[in-house]
Amino acid sequence: MSSDGAARRSLTSALKERLIQQSLRLRELNREGELNREGEPSRGGEPSRERDGTREGGPAREDEPARQGQHTGGAELQQWCRFDQHPGYRQLQILREGAARLGIDNPYFRLHDGAAAAAILRGERNLINYSSYNYLGLAGHPEVNAAAKAAIDHYGTSVSASRLVSGERPIHRELERALADLHGVQDCVVFVSGHATNVSTLATLVGPKDLVVHDALIHNSVLLGIQLSGAHRMPFAHNDLQGLDRLLTQWRAQFERVLVAVEGLYGMDGDFPDLPGLIAIKRRHHAWLLVDEAHSLGVLGKTGAGIQEHFGLDGTQVDIWMGTLSKALASCGGYVAGEAALVEHLKCSAPGFVYSVGMPAPAAAAALEALRIMRAEPGRVQRLHERARRFLELARQRGIDTGFSAGRSVIPAITRSSLKAARLSAALDHRGINVQPILYPAVPEQAARLRFFVCCEHSEDQIRDTVDALAEEWRRL
Ligand SMILES: Cc1ncc(COP(=O)(O)O)c(C=O)c1O
Fold it and tell me: Residue 24's pLDDT is what?
């Protein structure tokens, strides 16, 4: 037993409770600090400078210790070498202990076997699965698997270099061409990770003289990209286009480049923005518009071509189409599609592209084949819409709080309490339904929820039985 473990065990439960509350409050404060209020632009880069030991005017020099003379001996310095004393880790332990005391099983890192289908195997148990964003049922599809296997036979499992040097393969270009054509734009670049795509793209395109204005519910990868870029950052309330317009009216003139970042379909809430309205605003204020299509591709539009198809818009009206290959396209990686100059710039400068290995050929081949099937079989998208709409209707009839969901794929059941969300997820698990609770601090405590990813392969019976079980367990909360 570590000395820390022994010390924690000797705490009274009242003290433990206080520590948990303090730790939650601390996280809340950190979060509030991260998301500054409308009307107060903050420098996205500043917090990271403090943390990584660099400062205004340039990085700290290697020959200049940051806090000279502050430490006296090795024993004192040893504390900074202990992973188990790291404040982030200690907080995690306190939260885990709190959950264990309340009798809540850890809902994370559960071991599932087989493909992420409408049903999934956990040990001996077969569960209806709502925890995977395999919207079109293409992860595990035989033709997608076959394409990946053929690519392994031809190219091997790794391209073994950055594409800039010697990792470029024809399959990369085929995939990029197909994605550019899907959006109706000049070119596209694929990255090995969707998260890294946003981080690297923002860090490359904007800097300290620029401003990024983003929907308050934007994905973490966009926030980290802004932080890395050093650009100023301002959130606007979720889908509040008037608020966005007000911010730009007030602040636009003080910056060089201004980028507006939104999601094509919000992955936590299942709603989508008024894209024509956003385009009008960004034009009026001479700003770029980035639309993250991670959860919209394969989901919105009649054939799954995303939010631009839903609104019947020309792809060139959006400056930066960002998307991921990990969701409807059954693979891994991300992309940016748009003007040739944008793509060429990213290919030569974005750190997550230049200094990272090229996408493995089987991943590129899987995404390309999934895209082909999506285009050839629009019935998958229609079935997804039917199932999701039915889920939403039934859930609303039963009094479940489904938030803003538009009923296309993502449907939250908002409990407004992490404890209730964890209990509800465990109760459904016992009834053979796998659905992930989304708990604080992933969302604010008031927004804690279950999140159902509906996919086109869920049957009508599965949807009805699930909502019945959900409504019964919801009433018992
Ligand atoms: C909106 C959004 N953008 C980017 C990402 C990152 O994509 P990936 O998981 O493919 O790295 C995600 C992941 O869930 C996401 O939801």
Answer: 55
Residue nearest to atom 10 of ligand 1 (CA): 194
Q: Tell me if the pTM is above 0.85.
A: yes
Tell me the per-residue pLDDT of 420-457, one tens digit each, with 9 for 90 and over. 999 999 999 999 999 999 998 889 999 999 999 999 99
pLDDT value for 432: 97
pLDDT tens digits, residue range 132-145? 999 999 999 999 99
Q: Give 294 Cα–ligand 1 centroid separation in angstroms.
A: 6
Q: Using CA positions, which residue lies closest to atom 9 of ligand 1?
A: 194
* C-alpha torsion 292→458→302→323, nearest 10: 20
With CA atoms as reference, report the closest residue to 375 among 291, 318, 309. Answer: 309
Q: Is 35's pLDDT higher than 50?
A: no
Cβ-in-10-Å burial (0-12, 13-18, 19+) of 66 comes to exposed
Are 120 and 129 in contact by the 8 Å Cβ rule? The answer is: yes
Q: For residue 102, what are the contacts with CB-CB under 8 A and spacing of at least 6?
A: 419
Residue closest via CA to ligand 1's atom 11 equals 194
Task: Give all domains of the chain, ordered by start, each with its CATH number.
Answer: 119-139+378-476 (3.90.1150.10), 156-376 (3.40.640.10)
List, for residues 58-95, the tens digit of each pLDDT value: 333 434 444 555 666 788 899 899 999 999 999 899 88
Structure-token pair, residue 372 = 């082909």
**With 0-12 CB in 10 A as exposed, 13-18 as middle and 19+ as buried, what is 7?**
exposed
92-121 confidence digits (pLDDT tens): 998 888 888 888 888 889 999 999 999 999
Joined together, the tokens standing for residue 95 give 């939260």
Give residue ranges with CB within 6 A of ligand 1: 193-195, 198, 219, 221, 263, 267, 292, 294-295, 324, 326, 334
| Ligand 1 midpoint to CA 439 (Å) | 18
Ligand 1 atom, smallest distance to 133 CA: 14
d(CA 51, CA 66): 12
172-203 per-position pLDDT tens digit? 999 999 999 999 999 999 999 999 999 999 99
**Residue burial 106-116, b: 16+ Cβ < 10 Å; e: rest:** ebeeeebeebb
Give residue 221 CA to ligand 1 midpoint distance, Å: 7
Which residue, by CA, sits nearest to atom 7 of ligand 1?
Answer: 194
Where is 219: in which H helix or E strand? none
Crossing angle of helices 460-476 and 418-430, rounded to 10°: 130
CA angle in degrees (0–180, nearest 5) for 86-355-227: 50
